[in-house]
Automatic annotation (TrEMBL):
<keyword id="KW-0732">Signal</keyword>
<dbReference type="InterPro" id="IPR001907">
    <property type="entry name" value="ClpP"/>
</dbReference>
<feature type="signal peptide">
    <location>
        <begin position="1"/>
        <end position="19"/>
    </location>
</feature>
<protein>
    <submittedName>
        <fullName>ATP-dependent Clp protease proteolytic subunit</fullName>
    </submittedName>
</protein>
<dbReference type="GO" id="GO:0006508">
    <property type="term" value="P:proteolysis"/>
</dbReference>
<keyword id="KW-0645">Protease</keyword>
<dbReference type="Pfam" id="PF00574">
    <property type="entry name" value="CLP_protease"/>
</dbReference>
<dbReference type="InterPro" id="IPR023562">
    <property type="entry name" value="ClpP/TepA"/>
</dbReference>
<dbReference type="GO" id="GO:0008233">
    <property type="term" value="F:peptidase activity"/>
</dbReference>
<dbReference type="InterPro" id="IPR029045">
    <property type="entry name" value="ClpP/crotonase-like_dom_sf"/>
</dbReference>
<comment type="similarity">
    <text>Belongs to the peptidase S14 family.</text>
</comment>
<keyword id="KW-0378">Hydrolase</keyword>
């Protein structure tokens, strides 16, 4: 009986797979009836995963002309700063209302993407991590003073980016942001209550809902 139910569910909700994007839409749902959609992003931040995220948003906007809201559920430990910033700029200018939901963990460069929306939610046990950016040492050898300085300059560029974005989406004082982005020992972790206090989370609990269209993005290798 259970197997039969699963087969019927699969027939009712066709699953389409493109790269590491899984897309589900009910057979009985007309495109013009879709006014909300969800994207579950469970991946690190890099050029490929950001391309999948932005293309999913664009596909929803292009296919469903009556779309009003896109809920983006984030679970990401972060990753590439440039990719995170690119996603931030693209998403915050998106014509459709985007709601960001911390589904479990939003850390490092993933917090930049989270801040792309003015409507920010979090699950009850979700957590956030704010900490300094790291610059890569591509030489992997002894460093001369000018080479070491370039690495420090790169790190400060990204830490300045962190501070600029956090100042727009939180109430954390500038001095505290400077400390958070200056030393790993001053990193800040927030649960939902503390994230609300500093303004990172600015909405009440997201009500449980169903979506006519859902995308799932993962960087898991098959």
């Amino acid at each position: 009986m259970l197997r039969k139910k699963l087969i019927l569910l699969a027939l009712a909700l066709p699953i389409h797979v493109h790269a590491n994007i899984f897309f589900i839409k009910g057979n009985t749902v007309n495109d013009t009836d879709v006014d909300k959609a969800a994207i579950y992003f469970n991946a690190g931040i890099d050029p490929q995963t950001v391309a999948w995220l932005l293309s999913s948003v664009d596909e929803i906007n292009g296919n469903y002309r009556n779309i009003q809201n896109i809920d983006i559920y984030l679970n990401s430990g972060g990753g590439d700063m440039d990719s995170g910033y690119m996603a931030y700029e693209a998403l915050r200018k998106n014509p459709t209302k985007l709601n960001m939901i911390n589904a479990s963990n939003v850390a490092s460069s993933a917090t930049i993407i989270y801040c792309a929306s003015n409507e920010r939610y979090a699950m009850p046990m979700a957590s956030f991590l704010l900490h300094p950016a790291a610059a890569a040492n591509e030489i992997n050898d002894y460093l001369k003073p000018d080479q070491a300085q370039r690495i420090l300059d790169d790190a400060e560029k990204y830490n300045s980016l962190f501070r600029t974005i956090y100042s727009s989406c939180t109430k954390i004082p500038a001095e505290e942001l400077k400390a958070i982005t200056s030393s790993e020992s001053r990193r800040a972790t927030y649960n939902i209550e503390n994230a609300k206090k500093v303004g990172l989370v600015n909405q009440d609990m997201k009500k449980q809902t169903t979506y006519p269209v859902t995308y799932y993005i993962t960087d898991m290798q098959n």
